[in-house]
Amino acid sequence: MDRNKKYMNRCLQLARLGAGSVSPNPMVGSVIVHGEKIIGEGFHQKYGEAHAEVNTINAVANQELLKESTLFVTLEPCAHHGLTPPCSDLIVEKQIPHVVIGSVDPFSEVAGKGIEKLLRAGIKVEVGMLENECRELNRRFFTFHEKNRPYIILKWAQTQDGFIDIERTAENYGEPTWITGDLALRLVHKIRSEEDAILVGTNTAEKDDPTLTVRHWAGRNPLRVITDNKLRLPQSLHLFDHSEKTIVFNSVKNSTEKNMEYIKIDYSEDIIPQLLDHLHKKNILSVVVEGGRQLLETFISSGLWDEAHIFTGKKFFHEGVNAPAFHGTLIATETLDSDDLFVFRNNY
Length: 348
Description:
The chain is of the alpha/beta class. 26% of the residues lie in helices and 26% in strands. It has helices at residues 3-15, 52-58, 87-93, 113-120, 131-137, 139-147, 182-194, 202-208, 271-281, 293-302; strands at 29-34, 37-43, 70-75, 98-103, 124-127, 151-158, 163-165, 197-200, 223-227, 246-250, 255-257, 260-264, 286-289, 307-312, 321-322, 329-336, 339-345. The longest helix has 13 residues, at 3-15. The chain is elongated and about 70 Å long. The two termini are 33 Å apart. The model has no long low-confidence stretch (mean pLDDT 93).
């Protein structure tokens, strides 16, 4: 393997350790190489705390070696004062002579400015090492800044014969119709822990009474988002227990009650762009749509989705609510005991 690719692959491995902890920042990994030896490595560990380059530089025992070393990093070093000082300034200060970068930062406050600052200081800069892999790692971050919306993951479970639910009446509301098993459930909660928000529609909230939290995996709970046009959902539902930050999109009111926020939108227009615009303004990088067929099909018909995660169990319902129809490219499969997960990417 090419020397630079080897070290950038290590950066990518390190960057992934920040999953679920750094949003709305990107996941970033970095190593410092002296000769053919890594003398320091680090990653962005938590939003608001030190960036990957800072942690990597601080990990080098003999700081004098920095003047003879190469810094590898998956994303362009920042050039602006945010919650932390600019990483490009630190690289210049430490007189690191060579920097290899995976991809340019799409954030307008950086977007080439970090590279420009390094070049002005006489530092040799190489850009585009494993660029596709670096962009794929931070596809949520790039989608957020390049398309001005969160990255959208559709998720549902379906039976072998293609149903996502039985036809239910009010007598059997209050509990999801389980199609898959415990291992699939744990993976769903792991996915939730790594994404910023989770969205359901009125019918799913009423029929399933979900908590939309991470109970079967260690990690943070996502922002809970509900669509409830006329605010008809009963306050006794778990989603209104004030235990987690929750947004209710509706056509009635704007208000905030504890950690419940009600946002009024225009239901006479397409609600999906309005939802995504509000979430984008709140720095939500990604949304998992766990709604029922109606909400899922609204996203599919609008073309506003990036991935679809379809959990397929071994059950047969023979009749009920059909799974949504869509077109996408299968990019991954996984077997989970007796269940299967199929991951699709939107062809755009």
